[in-house]
Amino acid sequence: MQSRSWLMRPFGERSTLIFLGVLLATMALVTLLHVAVPAGHPLHASAYTVNLFGKYLSYALLAVAVDLVWGYLGILSLGHGAFFALGGYAMGMYLMRQIGDRGVYGHPVLPDFMVFLNWDSLPWYWHGFDMAGFAFLMVLLVPGALALVFGFLAFRSRVTGVYLSIITQALTFALMLAFFRNEMGFGGNNGLTDFREILGFNLRSSDTRLGLFLATGVALALGYVLCRAIVTSKLGRVCVATRDAEARTRFLGYRVERFQLFVFVVSAMLAGLAGALYVPQVGIINPSEFSPLFSIEIVLWVALGGRATLYGAVIGAILVNYAKTVFTGVMPDAWLFALGGLFVLVTVFLPRGVAGLLALRLRRSGDSDASFSAKEAAA
Amino acid sequence: MADGSRPCPHARTWSTLATPASAQDAERSDDTTAQALLAALDVSSFAAKGEAIEAIVRSDDPRARGWLQALLDGRLQRTDDGRFVVVLDNAGRQWPVEDALTGEALGEMSRRDLDRIGINNALRNQLRSAIAVVDLYAADVGLRRASAERLLGEVDGDLAGPLAEVIEAEPDARVKERLLQALAIYRLEQGEVEAIDDLRGSLHPRVRVALARAASGAVESRAAADDGPVLAEEARRALSGIEQKLKVNRAVETLYFGLSLGSVLVLAAIGLAITFGVMGVINMAHGELIMLGAYTTWAMQQWLPGQPGLALILAIPAGFLVAALAGIAIERGVIQFLKGRPLETLLATFGISLILQQLVRTVISPLNRTVVTPEWMSGSIAINDALSLTLNRMVVLGFALVMFAALILIMRRTRLGLEVRAVTQNRAMARSMGIRATRVDILTFALGSGVAGLAGVALSQLTNVGPNLGQNYIIDSFMVVVFGGVGNLWGTLVAGLSLGVINQVLEPWAGAVMAKIIVLVFIILFIQKRPRGLFPQKGRAAEG
User: Fold this and answer.
1) Could you give the number of structural domains in chain B?
2) Distance (Å, rounded) from C-alpha B95 to C-alpha B114?
3) How far apart are CA B350 and CA B284, in angstroms?
4) Where are the transmembrane segments (chain A) (predicted)?
5) What is the ipTM of this complex?
6) In A, which residues are within 8 Å of B353 by CB distance?
7) Are residues B273 and B421 in the same domain?
8) Domain CATH code at residue B532
9) Higher model confidence: residue A30 or residue B90?
């Protein structure tokens, strides 16, 4: 194992292989049920279902990003929704520019909401987003840059623990207020919507939706492997050490804040990528994605699935969001009760989440996962 | 309508001033004269109506004010058979009316049988000043005051002479000053430089308008032609003096609003300062405890309808109790199992906050409830023409300070405070000294929660009481506690008040939302510079 490059190391792990296998199988199954089974058949996966799965997978990627910083770095970010939303807005701006002159007002360059606000030219930060390459780069760079500046300031001053949680929450709250303003040039309250096509494909066709679902699956697989590679590398070991005893790690001579900053930025970029994949699938991005409630919900997915496992984050994201889809459809009033109850039950009775239960069974059968034993040592 | 029959306090009436000879010893107009007076209004020419109004004013009829007011409101109407009535309520088709002459109720009449006496804008202005003039003789100081207010900038040549005499006779200093100003505006318009002396220092907008007009040279000086610039110069000087005063006033107002906002922040945050700062427990449901306090106030007012003041007073202990009990339930039910795991506590209490919010939505209503402000808390204290301080905000500010002082006393001077501080500093040592740490935990949490309930009672007087009430304050409260320095009640006070003032100072040029964003970013940056807040804890306690 040691001889292989760090990026290839995850492929030597059983948990990663199982995860990738399950993910690929799911993707193949959904595709098959969508394409091969005729519409009307009970087993047919409708475009809606495909879309829903695509949405879940982008949430899963977001959860992986949060687990990377919370599970392995001990930083409880209550503001990861901000990075997700920024990535989403970058993608939304690209999709907005793709509408061209087919908007309601038919302006060749300006999006509808700017015409509505009587703006006569594009704000400077909207330039370049008509090019897919530039926009997709911004999906990573904008959240990354924010994380870099914020993280640099925070980690340098050794702001940790609940303090960091609270100021990340303030960060996303401030961004939410800012994006609600029309003057910001991001569509204010309504956000960006009415998208038509991405890279020339019609967003409303079911083929494009399938494509987006598959792309999200691939992104999740890559993101997962990248995160595993990071946490199993030497750098990842330092991160875990930081999580468990920050002061001791620092005394051993590690520049703790640099490790924290690196991982934080990577996580923010992954969250941005998740947001960018989310937006074309739901067809809208508005400031509510910045709401502190959403960010804290992400943390619940991770907590329910199990911290510091990565696959647990994926399980948690899908479970909670599936429950949300069911609940809000059947009895919308009960959803907040269920969500609130989950928060309490998981933290009090299931501190290791669903993955903890799984790992318990695995350990009984004699197998021991590397990250699990690391966590054991921490506890 | 009915208040037209006040006796003249000065034994002089408008009519004696305006037409000294004719009406001096006139008896009360009999109904025929009155009918004639009103009939004169029932013409199509607005000019003729204007004269008829003059006649009514001069008539010295005690019902004159009622007629003028009804005419102004469009409620003075003529029936088909030529009688004049005052419409009391013009909703629907059948209108209740009363006789304009006798004041007796005539029951309901169909709107079709009534003819409104129409007026135009010029008449409306004339009516307003006519009513003001009539009111100048009212026995009630309040009415005279209001009338003097209305006369500012409305004085014309006909009024100026009589007004001077009224001023002489006026016993109330404030009414007198107002009337002097009203007269001075007229004199200024006529080009009298001396009039400016009477206007200097007044903050009333009308006075400023008049001075600004004079300062721009729009007013011809009455004295020699080369005095024109002198008048404009004088006016300009007076105006700049007023501007200076206004600036001070605005600063005071900003400070007041800032302190008021700050007191709200302190109220919301102080309970958190106890649970988070002293116990180290992150209670995300703190906002919902505030909400419970606010709903307790609402419930009290439902229980005691018609006595909002008493209900509010009773809500203070009730709100404390309700929130404190809820706090104990949260502590016993959840937090005690998560000791030493602050991040998990944060998540679990957040879950509780969601449940409480939804509970209120389901059980009570998702809509905002109205909490009545008792009479002794509504209204405002007018410091001068440009500055008035609302009473409810002042009461809340005072309440916050009293609550803060009480908390400081509890923490410093009581057995509980001593034990809390001991457990905070060294739990194991405190326990071995015989302090029951678990009991202290419960009591501290109950205290912090109860204080949140009190904050809710106070907030119900300032904002809407709804399921989202708590959510709106939780982030701000954490910001205040972190900014002030965790574990330091004084820090919370200073941080809350100063953040409130900063917010209000920024608001005029940045807008409300932007001001809030700037403050948030400021705190985020401040925490980087001083991670332990304004007043960091020193020594061993800081290492926790």
Assistant:
1) 3
2) 9
3) 5
4) 69-92, 104-126, 132-155, 162-180, 210-227, 259-278, 298-322, 334-360
5) 0.85
6) 340
7) yes
8) 1.10.3470
9) A30
Q: Does B357 touch chain A (CB under 8 A)?
A: yes
The reply to whether B332 touches chain A by the CB within 8 Å rule is no
Q: Which residue ranges make up each domain of chain A? A: 9-378
Query: Is the CB of residue B473 less than 8 Å from the CB of residue B263?
Result: no
Interchain CB contact of A116 with B (< 8 Å):
no
Of residues A195, A173, A198, the one with CA closest to residue A287: A173
Domain identity same for B368 and B501: yes
**Contact between chains at A180 and B513 (C-beta distance less than 8 A):** yes
Sign of the dihedral defined by the CA atoms of residues B100, B101, B104, B107, in that order: negative
Which residue from A156, A170, A336 is facing B523, i.e. has the nearest CB? A170
Verify that B63 and B28 share a domain, yes or no.
Answer: yes
End of a domain among B85, B104, B130?
B130
CB contact under 8 A, A343 and B361: no
**Whole-model pTM over 0.80:** no
User: Tokens for B524?
Assistant: 């985020």
Q: Give residue B262's pLDDT band: very low, low, confident or very high (50, 70, 90).
A: very high
Q: Report the distance separating Cα B489 and Cα B506, nearest Å.
A: 26
Q: Are A271 and A147 in contact (CB under 8 A)?
A: no
Residues B516 and B459 in one domain: yes
Residues B530, B443, single domain; the answer is yes
**B202 and B338: one domain?**
no
Please name the amino acid found at residue B247: K
A302 near A61, Cβ under 8 Å? no
B53 and B146 in a single domain? The answer is no
- Interchain contact A229–B (C-beta under 8 A): no
The string of pLDDT tens digits covering residues A56-90 is 999 999 999 999 999 999 999 999 999 999 999 99
What pLDDT, on a 0 to 100 scale, did the predictor assign at position B278?
Answer: 72
At A1 the three-state DSSP class reads coil
Question: Residue B15: inside a domain, yes or no?
Answer: yes
The number of beta carbons lying within 10 Å of the beta carbon of residue B375 is 10
Boundary residue ending a domain (B80, B99, B130): B130
User: Which structural domain range is residue B413 located in?
Assistant: 248-374+390-539
Q: Which of residues 269-328 of B touch A (CB under 8 A)?
A: 282
Are residues A344 and B475, on separate chains, in Cβ contact within 8 Å? Answer: no
How far is it, in rounded angstroms, from Cα A352 to Cα A359? Answer: 9
Task: Report phi then psi at B110, rounded to 5.
Answer: -70, 140
Average pLDDT over residues B352-381: 88
Residues of B numbered 203-232 whose beta carbons fall under 8 angstroms of chain A's beta carbons: which are they?
none
- A340 chain-B contacts, CB cut-off 8 A: 350-356, 358
- Structural domain includes residue B240: no
Residue B195 and residue B312 in one domain: no
Say if B316 falls within a structural domain: yes
Determine whether the interchain pair A344/B352 forms a contact, defined as Cβ–Cβ distance below 8 Å: yes
Chain B contacts of A161, Cβ < 8 Å?
Answer: 342-343
**Smallest Cα–Cα separation from A283: which of A171, A181, A205?**
A205
B163 touches chain A (CB under 8 A): no
Q: B358 vs A333: CB contact, 8 Å cut-off?
A: yes
Angle at alpha carbon of residue A126, lines to A120 and A132, rounded to 5°: 130
Asked if A166 is an interface residue toward chain B (Cβ–Cβ < 8 A), one would say: yes
The span from the CA of A230 to the CA of A267, in Å, is 11
